[in-house]
Amino acid sequence: xRERFRAFIRILFAGLVAFFATGAATANAGDLAVTVRDxxxxxxxxxxxxxxxxxxxxxxxxxxxxxxxxxQKDTAYDPFVSIVPAGTPVAFKNSDxxxxxxxxxxxxxxxxxxxxxxxxxxxxxxxKPGVVVIGCNIHDRMLAYIYVSGNGMPSxxxxxxxxxxxxLPPGAYRLTAWHPLLRSKRKQPTADxxxxxxxxAALDLVATLKQPNKKKRKPYKY
Length: 222
Fold this sequence. Notes:
- The chain has 222 residues and is mostly beta strands.
- It has one helix at 2-28, and strands at residues 30-37, 48-53, 68-72, 77-78, 81-85, 88-94, 100-106, 109-115, 124-126, 130-136, 144-149, 153-156, 162-168, 171-178, 190-195, 200-206.
- A 5-stranded mixed β-sheet has the order 5-11-10-7-8, with no helix packed on it. The chain has a 4-stranded antiparallel β-sheet with strand order 12-2-14-15, with no helix packed on it.
- A hairpin with a 4-residue loop joins strand 3 (68-72) and strand 4.
């Protein structure tokens, strides 16, 4: 009985230490809002901003919440840009009344599958960090991007161009932005900022983008 009681006390003490440590880290954390704009000052949606501690210290890893799904509807992928942590299974759902042929030649993930109408594919494991460009062999205008995160903490900008980071550990950060239409993939927008504990910081990043093709295309006929 004494040994069981002592074991119980040790477990209880360890739990209390972990609880108070987590509470202290949360209380001392800071928030950050990064607004991504183009060269004309317009907000840029679907930009992936990654925050990395300049000290090289690791940040809390993203948790994979089961199978991530990319939908195919009206001959388009939804979402256009996805962020998943490395090790996440991804399935492709076809909500159209016609088939799709999903593929990628990207180094981070190469695959080639068919998805019949009103069906979903088996999950594919995205285990290598990097950008995976998704196409369709039947409909060449269909494009999507899956950003498989590795080091750092990523966040995607919304329609207002804002990428939010909640509960960042205090410290000096290097921020880097990526977008499918960046004019130069080798010169991604970067900025440095220091996040203070129990504070809210804000920063703007300017992304020089290529002009999208505005030519109207005829819809597919079935």
